Amino acid sequence: MDYSSHEEFWYGNCRERVGWFPSSYVRILNSNPSTSTSDVLSLNYFPQSMRFLRAKIVQELMQTERDYVNLLQNIVQGFTEQCRRRSDLFPAVRIQRLFGNIEAIYALHCKFLRELELAFNRNIPESSAIGAVFLRNRSKFSIYSEYCNNRPVSSTELALLTEQTHYYQFFEACRLLRGMPKLPLEGFLLAPVQRICRYPLQLSELLKATPTSHKDREPVKIAVSAMKNVAAMINEKKRRLEGLQQIVLWQMNVERWRGPDLVETNSRMIHSGEVYCRYIIGGDIIWHKDVLLFLFDQSLVICKKDLIKRNFYIFRDRISLNSVTFLNCNDGKDSTTGLNLKNSWKLVMIGREVVFTCKDRNSKVTWVEHLQRPLIYSPATAEERRLICETIYRTSSMTLL
């Protein structure tokens, strides 16, 4: 009921009829004697302008979801399934590179749209309660992370294929048979990334047009936060994958590498810099040298510069942070080694210890802060390693062309 526009007449519905009522003919039911009439009016405040806006936003959300599901159907049935029929051109691994898990996304949104349609009130769109639909499905939207992380692989693979006439013509034939707009396949495959980012914006607009008295107010409010968290989670996993990729690329520039790959136990590089290093066994200095030190989640890698190849390093040693004791050394004579130390810290292991000396106090403080942080074990998953290898290999292929 809208009572904000006119004092003499109120707008509302009664027994499925909508129209204007003389205010003198309307009696406000108040089951709580302690609540004033003005409080009741405030709780039920839903002016016609807000009704119109909410109806428009709900209708737009519904229509864009229908259009999106239709697009997903065209991609899955018109491209993915057609590619499977041509295994000579599209082996399973190539289809995985191109389309990722788009079929799982399509299945999710078919169900999601059915739930939205059930919650949608066609006669009175502004009364629709769709917030709960988002809340029931919020955990399922996590599958978008896999799709978004696969996008660089997909884009590179598609660019390589469309340079070849027979692949270009195949994709064009698929598009024409489905009556889709004249856009490259890359444009269609970008739609899921755009869609998942749009939900928080649409829900935020819906929340602004939903009065506190509306049954959908609280669910929409929670849904806004939930979908923002989904987007944040996707971005965080993307940043993690980029960090893992940087580790792999960095290790490729280290000559004479020994031991397992860094990504088997590490997920990001935390800090690096030049320090003076001394290896001590049984109280004797075995070797000492200026080195480049690289700190990762679980490992400390000691290298020296390659004087011939720029931006390349020569591997010297690798220390697992799980098997050492970190000691922050005071300036002066060290009680165990007898060395006069300044701006130093050391790692103690069974049978040996390594003393690192920084150039100045600020540099030492930075190293100590990073080394005293809690260790987080978060190695690359099999899927992440696949994506990293695919991205690096495909990027290298594009560079060579």
UniProtKB/TrEMBL annotation:
It holds the Pfam family SOS1_NGEF_PH. GO terms for molecular function: guanyl-nucleotide exchange factor activity. GO terms for biological process: intracellular signal transduction. This is SH3 domain-containing protein. Keywords: Guanine-nucleotide releasing factor. The keyword Secreted does not apply. Residues 53-237 form the DH domain. GO terms for cellular component: cytosol. The lineage of its organism: Eukaryota, Metazoa, Ecdysozoa, Nematoda, Chromadorea.
